[in-house]
Amino acid sequence: MTANESAVPPADEGGGRPGAAAGGSDGRESRDSTGTATDHAFSEDRDGAEERGKDNPLALKVEELILGAARTYTPFQAARAADVPMDLAARFWRAMGFADIGQARALTEADVLALRRLAGLVEAGLLNEAMAIQVARSTGQTTARLAEWQVDSFIAGLTVSPEPGMSRMEVTYPLVELLLPELEEFLIYVWRRQLAAATGRVVQAQDDEEMVDRRLAVGFADLVGFTRLTRRLEEEELGELVEAFETTAADLVAAHGGRLIKTLGDEVLFSADDAGTAAEIGLRLIETLSGDETMPELRVGMAFGTVTTRMGDVFGNTVNLASRLTSIAPKDTVLIDGALREELTAVGDAPHSEKDSGPGAGYRFALQPLYQRPVRGLGVVEPWLLGRRG
């Protein structure tokens, strides 16, 4: 036990009620380890904390297996044990995506250690406070989606009993016990590979500005008529269609050297460092999905230009233009902007004009100009229809 841990109020302080340590019936104001009043959202809602104390004991058993420890601390106690001001602990907690829990005793030694680590990075000068909050937020958002996806993927195994009479708990607990260490190791492996790739891109950047504002090809692939499909298909069928679309798109983008930025159900957003890679991905998406009778038609829009990257997402006029091109693209086609067309012609992947595109020219892609048209918020653009040569 550390000196900080020994200072944690005992479990029965304040009459033993969850939340009493944050301000019991004697009216005293709760204060963190620095003497500052505790975060309001964490110091109230005593009734809610007591209600949460009635959690299903079987669910708590699974939670303890996953977290590796029993619930020990209230947020106030955890902040004191970590020697972190309560208001900063509350900001870290919310940034990670966790709900306010009043002063319920719901935290473990791992929560204390996480607070210590984040605060320690700030104290050591490796991160400032705003960056530490960003680290917490980006990690929380990414892993929240991952956790939901994993549970959804395994839900059939959690609910279907292999033997008659087995409860869900009897099925779930050993399954989690077997999967947890394997998934944890796999998560760390994939994260390290992705971190190595991202770090490599930063190291190769020409200057600091290029690390944030980069010239990229950005593309959207959108399922046509998805809204109508949602009214016609059963929920399970719709879920299977979306999963098949996202899986196929993700595989194609990765296989051909692009990066999947995010999936939006009926739409995916991807990027590539060069125009040729983006063009190949766009056409492959159309070619692959148009050959699948279970899939609706697809349309792709792509643009090339300066893109602001932040927390794994992309922003800016180039992204907006790619989205607008997608919305006006005919079914099963790829539309690109003039900048992406110029990049393709500059490296010899596409002809400057039709007179340059004779037999044996060796171009990978064909380009057909379409009528100029106004695009909301971006003025008049000249889209180009992208295709393959030969």
UniProtKB/TrEMBL annotation:
CDD domains linked: CHD
Compositional bias annotation for Basic and acidic residues: 41-55
Gene3D superfamilies xrefs: Nucleotide cyclase (3.30.70.1230)
Gene Ontology BP terms: cAMP biosynthetic process; intracellular signal transduction
Family the UniProt entry places it in: Belongs to the adenylyl cyclase class-3 family.
Signal peptide as annotated in the record: none
Superkingdom, natural source: Bacteria
Start and end residues of each stretch annotated as Disordered: 1-55
Native source species: Streptomyces chumphonensis
Protein name: Adenylate/guanylate cyclase domain-containing protein
Residue ranges with Gly residues bias: 16-25
Gene Ontology molecular function: adenylate cyclase activity
Ranges of residues in domain Guanylate cyclase: 217-326
